[in-house]
Amino acid sequence: MDDGFVLASSSPRRRDLLAQLGVTPDLLLAPEIDETPRSGELPRAYVTRMAREKAQAVAARAPQPSVLLAADTTVACGRRILPAATTPELVDQCLRLLSGRRHTVHTAVAVVDAGGRLRERLSATVVQFKRLSDAERAAYVACGEGLGKAGGYAIQGRAAAFVSFLSGSYSGVVGLPLHEVRQLLTASGLP
Questions:
Q1: Which of 149-183 are b and which e, b meaning 16 or more Cβ less than 10 Å from the residue's Cβ?
Q2: From CA 40, how far away is CA 46, in angstroms rounded?
Q3: pLDDT at res. 3
Q4: pLDDT, tens only, 13-24
Q5: Are 7 and 30 in contact (CB under 8 A)?
Q6: pTM
Q7: Which residues make Cβ contacts (< 8 Å) with residue 13, sequence separation at least 6?
Q8: DSSP letters of the chain?
Q9: Looking at the annotation, which residues are catalytic?
Q10: CB of 96 within 8 A of CB of 153?
Q11: 5-187 sits in which CATH class?
Q12: If I label 162, which of 3, 41, 76, 144 is the partner at 20 to 30 A Cα–Cα?
């Protein structure tokens, strides 16, 4: 059974970004993997491993797709991997750390074609936040937008006002670097 294009994600942001390329997944399957960083694992290695493991996990469950895409995004402050903020306290901790500093958002993309060949790309974007006041942090935490987001913020929302510098892929920060994705999908035979 051929299920066309499978997106190994339940992220509405990734679906919206794919739509900008004119691509609609035929099937959405959320990967179920352990996303705990390994001891001493650096951000680039971590995010690349996560995208690959997500692709492999979904490929093992999915009916024979023609193309499968998985991605992972992480925010790194130096060598430190910031978590997906699951509580308001974690959102605040991330914002305190990122306030007035540059950080790197890594998004790895893994694509598996119908023949089982894996292709990967990594996007790294440097983002700098302005120095955040206590009131700005508190208002952002209270809005709830940073919950579940890597590094505790969503650049496509209210946090856009915190960004004083960006070098790289804006869509990569949102969760899917479109330039790299288009190259991978084309190379994998997706029209």
A1: bbbbbbbbeebeebeeebebbbbbbbbbbbebbbe
A2: 10
A3: 59
A4: 999 999 999 999
A5: no
A6: 0.93
A7: 156, 174, 175, 176
A8: ----EEE----HHHHHHHHHTT---SEE-------PPPTT--HHHHHHHHHHHHHHHHHHHSS--SEEEEEEEEEEETTEEEPB--SHHHHHHHHHHHTT-EEEEEEEEEEEETT--EEEEEEEEEEEEPPPPHHHHHHHHHH-TTTTSBTT--TTTGGGGGEEEEES-HHHHHT--HHHHHHHHHHTT--
A9: 72
A10: no
A11: alpha beta
A12: 41
| Token pair recorded at residue 38 | 């390994």
Radius of gyration of the chain (CA): 17
Instruction: Fill in the amino acid letter for 113.
Output: D
Domain residue spans in the chain? 5-187
Q: Tokens 């990734």 sit at which residue?
A: 14
- In the numeric block, the tokens 């492999």 are attached to 56
Alpha carbons within 13 angstroms on the beta-carbon side of residue 154 total 16
